[in-house]
Design goal:
Layout: H1 10-18, H2 27-37, H3 41-46, H4 49-53, H5 60-80, H6 90-101, E1 108-114, E2 120-128, H7 138-147, E3 152-158, H8 168-182, E4 187-194, E5 199-201, H9 202-205
Parallel strand pairs: 3-4
Antiparallel strand pairs: 1-2, 1-3, 4-5
Helix pairs in contact: 1-2, 5-6, 7-8
Amino acid sequence: MQCGESSLTDAELLAVFLGTGTRVQSVIDLAQQLLVEFRGLRRLLEAEISQVMAVPGIGPAKYAALRATLELTQRYLESAVMKDGAITDPSTTRRYVSGRLRHYEREVFACLYLDNQHRLIMFEELFFGTIDGASVHPREVVKRSLRHNAAAVIFAHNHPSGVAEPSQADQRITRKLISVLSLIDVRLLDHIVVGDREVVSFAERGLL
């Protein structure tokens, strides 16, 4: 790794976490087989345990190592989303919510509750829907914001279609949520839409 970890291929990086191969297959070949069968790292790391362990050479220990890499990444992003206790970097926030929501095959609407210094109080998945959308209930959003004593919030939801472009329905519910939250003096800082390869910020688009 003279050129650094970033120079490794997906198979080489995956092989580091797998550790060993089998009697008939090198660890690199095993890693490559996993990437081919699951069509990439994302689907591999999001696959069910039964699917992954059906691959010859993958036992409980190797599966646990794969899951640990995903958990470690999520914990890193959760810690990186804050600097000196407060959210200061929008790009890191987008990566964080993308890591939390992108893998869902149905639409999930989540909220980051912040205090008056924009420190993260809690990340919470609020509403779950079908592949076509999730029903968002403003009354419940207000209730949860009050319960967490939030001064500001950031909304995020995924588009299982993979296209992150905000829909007209997304824009309508956002305007409605801004209105009801203003009644309790809670400010909406952003609404982030997560797709497969793109993350769209309402704030950056001027949609708030």
